[in-house]
Amino acid sequence: MITMNPWNTKHTPGAANRLLPWARLTLTVLWLPACNHVGVVGVSLENDHLSAPVGDTAATTVTVQNLGEGSLVFHEFLFTEDPILDTGPQFQVAPYVQDQEILPDESLEFTVTFAPLAVGTATMHLTVSTNGGTETVSVSGEGINNPPEVEITPAPPDTVCPGEVFTLEARVFDLEDAALLPALQTTLTSSLEGSLPDGTLDTNGAFEAEVSLHTEGTHTLTLEVTDTHGATGSDTVQVIVSATGETVADESACSAASSAH
User: Fold this and answer.
1) Is 8 a member of any domain?
2) Which among 20, 57, 136, 224 has the fewest CB atoms less than 10 Å away?
3) How do 165-173 and 149-152 pair as beta strands?
4) Are residues 85 and 173 in the same domain?
């Protein structure tokens, strides 16, 4: 806008009206601020608690939404874990995105995956950084103990004589207690005779016990293993004890075994 001060002008007869050298011009420039709205960030979780056995995974969806009227620029995710394990992170966020625009009423979705490396609880604090500010949400995870895996192999004899000694072998695996296998509790029982003398479990998970059964009939032998977290695993096998010759091919073999003992 241009304004002219009339008191600094002079009319000269016979000449065109003009501004004289002492005339003053005032120039006024008006700056109007641009209307540039910034979006408003909103973050939501499908599930804020995840649980999975150690060695397995669980996942949830995190949604970053533009709740405002202007443009929202998603910069990045920042996250921390508690506790921090030497074996590595237990939470992951995908896909990896930086500096992506989110228009009004639109959103981005990400997957949070929890892969427990140890038994117990953990928490991830997830901060969303945008040009409209930051917002933090938390996801908790629970690592569940796996029970021991027990397999009686190779199978013992189908039929034995009363008092005959045979070897019961088994393989034991425990993911969380892999370095503590000999310390795991093992219990061997018979459905007809109850508790049997225990065997040994070595560092490779090999179990071995010398078994002698005296009660005739079909015995269900159960090997149960308890880990350091109190979880149990077991396997069973059936062995027939007979001295009648009905199920033993050579009845004299039982007589010989009986006289030997």
Assistant:
1) no
2) 20
3) antiparallel
4) no
Any domain includes 33: no
Domain containing residue 94: 41-144
Number of H helices, E strands in the chain: 1, 20
CATH number of the structural domain spanning residue 249: 2.60.40.10
Q: Are residues 182 and 198 in the same domain?
A: yes
Say how far apart CA 142 and CA 51 lie, in whole Å: 5
**HSE-up of 9 (CA within 13 Å, CB side)?**
10
Q: Is 23 a domain residue?
A: no
Kindly give, in sequence order, each residue whose CB lies less than 8 Å from that of residue 147, ignoring residues fewer than 6 positions away.
Answer: 174, 227, 231, 232, 233
Strand partners, 220: 238
Contact 167, 156 (CB under 8 A): yes
Q: How far apart are CA 91 and CA 124, in angstroms?
A: 7
DSSP strand pairing (185-190 vs 194-195): antiparallel
Residue 214, amino acid = H
176 HSE (CA, 13 A, CB side): 22
56 with 146: CB under 8 angstroms?
no
pTM: 0.72
β partners of residue 78: 127
Dump pLDDT digits (tens) for 48-84. 999 999 999 999 999 999 999 999 999 999 999 999 9
75 and 158 in a single domain? The answer is no
Question: What's the pLDDT tens digit per position in 177-211?
Answer: 999 999 999 999 999 999 999 999 999 999 999 99
